[in-house]
Specification:
The structure is a homodimer.
Chain A: H1 18-35, H2 42-48, H3 53-60, H4 63-83, H5 93-110, H6 114-123, H7 130-134, H8 139-154, H9 164-180, H10 182-188, H11 196-211
């Protein structure tokens, strides 16, 4: 470990070598998503980025600061992109849900590493980005989302079998897991070709119809219409 | 590594020490779910099970055979429990879905390690149980499930925005991810207490209503059939 020449990650993001630094950050993220952070050494990051380990230390100081940079410079902007347009006080519940799904799919479209990294390093027990990521989750807005759904139920607009505090989890699961599982799923269904547009249509159809209205019968058994 | 005294895992499952062996297998699985297989050594498994590493080798021979035993003796029976009651030729689509959800929740109720292990070691790229688990997925039945849903759509009984080949993935995501994420979710929503019965009600409400019938509007960007 080198001495801490800078106290936070990203200090060098404005220097002339910021492109090379950013590329190395992206290389590190791709490796982390593929094999897990715990299984990836700084030397492997350097080799994959075709730089020396000393360069990795020059740009990111310690391994811990590299992980800070992953969250602050790559994950946190995505959280903001997903959540900032949300106004839980004003938005209609179905628009709100559809907006979150659309933006979540947009950010995964350009960051194919996101679903694996999210499942592995944030959701999983022991995930190495969990604590860092928690600091960037807009908790008030996430809580406001749950309240928005609950108000929609109280007005009789939404399926009252839905648990408002679980709905965001369900959206995340429906969008992220099939992308992380695309390769194994293709082994089960050889004719299946993963397609983000198909996933979007499927998830929106399930959620919009699943959340809207009330089930015809009060119970799950045969909620046919 | 010891010599291969036995060629497959589980050879000793019928010997008098099978209880102790089974307990050690359960200890290993709990560790694997918590910290990942790649981050768990045989010595750590032995220590957690309060036996010597030599005993682990005596019962399971190599680390690879220990992983075989995890899949063959613990995971494969759960796959069978979930899928064997399914008859894709005869079952009505909604009953079929509800049965899968119910059985999936049943098996996770008594195996709290299952959601994490599933996400981390089967779904994830590089998951160390993926290839082994694939051999136990009843592929014909899983494919039959997709065909059953497609026939339900063709009969006009089901939401035609659903993609039949993605539906099982969605069920798995809705049931497993919130359980694996329960602890982090509680940090976001401190008032939230995870409860499997609440999850079951929520998932069934979303799925039964989401799959049934046709979307009220033709929307969702061309839900063509």
């Amino acid at each position: 470990m080198l001495n801490a020449r800078r106290s936070t990650a990203g200090r060098r993001a404005r220097t002339p070598d910021s492109d090379a630094r950013g590329q190395l950050l992206d290389t590190a993220i791709a490796l982390f998503a593929e094999r897990g952070i715990a299984n990836t050494t700084v030397a492997q990051v350097a080799a994959a980025g075709q730089v020396t380990s000393a360069m990795v230390h020059y740009w990111f100081d310690t391994r811990e600061h590299l992980l800070d940079a992953v969250v602050e410079e790559r994950l946190a902007p995505l959280f903001r992109a997903i959540w900032e347009p949300v106004d839980p006080e004003r938005d209609a519940p179905l628009e709100l849900v559809q907006g979150i799904v659309r933006r979540m799919l947009e950010v995964t479209g350009t960051r194919p590493w996101l679903p694996s990294l999210w499942l592995r390093e944030i959701i999983n027990e022991g995930g190495l980005l969990r604590e860092r990521a928690l600091r960037h989750i807009p908790i008030k807005r996430v809580q406001g989302f749950g309240q928005n759904i609950a108000r929609g139920q109280a007005r009789g607009e939404l399926n009252d079998g839905i648990e408002p505090l679980l709905l965001f989890n369900s959206i995340l699961a429906l969008v992220m897991l099939p992308q992380a599982a695309a390769r194994i799923w293709q082994r089960v269904h050889p004719t299946f070709k993963f397609d983000r547009a198909v996933l979007e249509r499927h998830v929106c159809a399930l959620l919009m119809h699943g959340i809207a209205g009330r089930p015809a019968k009060r119970r799950l058994s045969g909620a046919t219409r």
